[in-house]
Design goal:
The chain is of the alpha+beta class. It folds into four domains: 11-122, no CATH class; 123-200, Arc Repressor Mutant, subunit A (Orthogonal Bundle), CATH 1.10.10; 231-535, no CATH class; 544-604, OB fold (Dihydrolipoamide Acetyltransferase, E2P) (Beta Barrel). It is built from 17 helices and 24 strands. The strands form seven sheets. A five-stranded antiparallel sheet has the order 4-3-2-1-5. It is elongated.
Length: 606
């Protein structure tokens, strides 16, 4: 309790600021800095000096001899009045406030006006060091923010930007740096800032990491391939046909009289159920294909050993089929085999489609395709492109509708139907692929109708019960031709191999569990691939601001049109000045690009 009673002209402490007492009744009227008045209770203030104090503006900073006073009082207790008299030789409202400010800062003294303790030398030294460190940190922080604003980073700054990177990669929603600069804490803003200050190059693709996907290939010891009896098909020429630059050839085609053989890399011979390799494949779900690289589901050494055509002879799981005049698959034969494979591109084989055996294989696959179309298979021919990045060069090229590509596609679909039916007949639990029909099935004509029809298509699902795949026009279907690249294909191969050898099969419940295990990873991979392709397309436009090309009106919403750009397989929206019919062709030019927002705006030329 203060030794001074409140009276007009007295100096009091209200909270942490000085107050001038102007009147005393049942309550106390005080004046605060800035001229604001307040009525308070006696217990709300602490008296520092009885006065008289004319104005709070008289309270000016004073130096005094407070350090000497601290040395004299070290380790003892005193009062504000005694401290003030020691430091300033007089006790006035002005000196009392100057002394109290030193007490309030808590370095040399601490306590209340009637009970002030002079702190020990050790305490003072420790506090001084801490305060100096805090001051240095605050200055370094201010300097760092200034360098960010000026885009003049030094090497040490990159470590501090880690909290921005965490937001850019979707791993955190908070960033002290973004907050300090007044930026909204979103992945797009973080990405934009990291590019802007030169921490990330504009080529940096954050989407695989943003989807929490691995960005390195597995590094697991690979066992040797076991010895087993295999059907020798090395006398049949086998052709692995793929896009130029393909790194994981996992299927090939042969013709043996009227029987077409589809050979698939025998990954299940090496990757055993519940092995370390198998669990890694399960965790990843599939290969990740982004324009700048491939992140494999399995160690790349497995591809080197088992990829078809990468060794003189390749072990395979081979599916031999005959196709009757109605396009139905008959006389399926499944065998572990040994084959001899040559590798080719679609473009090369497309020029040889009139030769043997490609002409005969094409005729067989055409029968199968005709049956699928008659059963309602979707015929959607929208532009597709290949986006690849090679030594920082972005290459975008259309995927031509080659007969060789369609031939290989139909052969793979034949295997999918044949294996699905075989599994049903033999009661082999596998993951089937099904798809419900669209709400308004039709035969679309023209790019606009195909665009609208594709939007009606329902997603494909993996399940243990077979059912129609409407998009493919098949009553039963499974994916079984890419065990190097897709986990569920590997599961199907393991089941087929177990069946062929009379071994125990996984149950329906176990297959259901495996389907569920990869659903999340599969969705993340699809999103990462889609966003990554968009990233490089938009960056391509940013690097080529003079780009012009054709666009086709595929949808209209009042005066706003959805335009498909075939050359880039890219959609954009443009507000039209006048109504245009669907299928109208426009010449577009780049107007503006935002790489971090995956957005490009265009204008109509002419």
């Amino acid at each position: 309790m203060s030794q001074f009673s409140p009276a007009p002209g007295g100096l009091a402490l209200y909270k942490i600021r000085p107050a001038l007492i102007t009147a005393v009744t049942d309550k106390i009227d005080i004046q605060l800095e800035g001229g604001k008045s307040k009525r308070v209770r006696p217990k709300d203030i602490v008296m520092l000096h009885p006065g008289p104090l004319r104005s709070l503006s008289d309270l000016q900073p004073l130096e005094g001899n407070l350090t000497e006073a601290w040395e004299l009082l070290s380790g003892s207790e005193t009062t504000l009045q005694e401290l003030t008299e020691l430091a300033f030789d007089e006790f006035t409202p002005v000196t009392a406030w100057a002394a109290w400010e030193r007490v309030a800062e808590g370095l040399y003294f601490e306590g209340e006006p009637e009970h002030i303790v002079a702190r020990s030398g050790e305490q003072v030294a420790a506090d001084q060091e801490a305060r100096e460190a805090k001051a240095r940190a605050e200055q370094e922080w201010a300097d760092f923010l200034a360098r960010l604003e000026q885009k003049q980073l030094i090497e040490e700054d990159r470590k501090q930007l880690s909290d921005v990177e965490q937001v850019a990669l979707g791993r955190s929603e908070k960033s002290r740096i973004l907050q300090a600069l007044g930026h909204q804490e979103t992945p797009q803003n973080a990405h934009r800032m990291l590019i802007g200050v030169g921490c990330w190059p504009d080529t940096h693709n954050p989407y695989p990491q943003r989807m929490s996907l691995p960005t390195d290939n597995p590094d697991i010891v690979i066992p040797e391939l076991g010895e087993e009896e295999r059907l020798d098909l090395t006398h049949l020429p086998a052709f692995a046909i793929d896009d130029e630059g393909s790194e994981d050839p996992d299927d090939a085609i042969s013709l043996d009289g009227e029987r077409i053989w589809v050979h698939v890399a025998d990954v299940a011979a090496l990757v055993q159920p519940d092995s370390e390799l198998y669990l890694e494949a399960r965790a990843r779900g599939a290969n990740l294909y982004v324009p700048e690289r491939i992140v494999h589901m399995l160690p790349t050494e497995i591809t080197t050993r088992l990829g078809l055509g990468l060794q003189e002879q390749s072990p395979a799981l081979s599916f031999g089929m005959r196709i009757d005049e109605q396009g139905e698959i008959v006389d399926l034969q499944i065998a572990t085999s040994l084959i001899r494979v040559s590798r080719h591109t679609y473009s090369e084989i497309d020029e040889r489609m009139h030769e043997s055996p490609f002409q005969a294989i094409w005729q067989l696959t055409e029968r199968f395709q005709s049956r699928r179309k008659a059963a309602g298979a979707a015929s959607i021919d929208l532009p597709e492109v290949s986006v690849r990045v090679i030594e920082d060069e972005i290459r975008i090229r259309p995927l031509d509708r080659l007969n060789s590509r369609q031939m290989v596609t139909e052969a793979m679909l034949m295997v999918g139907e044949a294996v699905a039916r075989y599994a049903q007949e033999k009661d082999i639990p596998i993951p089937f692929a099904t798809q419900n029909p669209p709400d308004n099935p039709q035969e679309p004509e023209g790019i606009a109708q195909m665009y609208a029809y594709r939007r009606q298509m329902k997603p494909s699902r993996s399940q243990t019960e077979t059912g129609p795949h409407a998009g493919l026009g098949l009553s039963s279907y499974t994916r079984a031709t890419s065990p190097l690249r897709r986990y569920l294909d590997l599961v199907t191969h393991q089941q087929l191999r177990a069946h062929l050898k009379g071994a125990e099969l996984l149950s329906l419940a176990q297959i259901t569990e495996r389907i569920a295990a990869v659903e999340i990873a599969g969705g993340a991979i699809r999103r990462a691939e889609r966003f990554s392709n968009s990233h490089w397309k938009v960056l391509f436009l940013a690097r080529n601001p003079q780009w012009q090309g054709k666009g086709v009106v595929v949808d209209l919403d009042e005066q706003r049109a959805t335009i498909l750009i075939p050359e880039l397989a890219l959609e954009t929206k443009i507000r039209l000045k006048k109504s245009l019919p669907l299928e109208s062709e426009l010449t577009l030019a780049v107007r503006e690009v935002d790489v971090t927002d995956l957005t490009a705006w265009f204008r109509i030329v002419g």
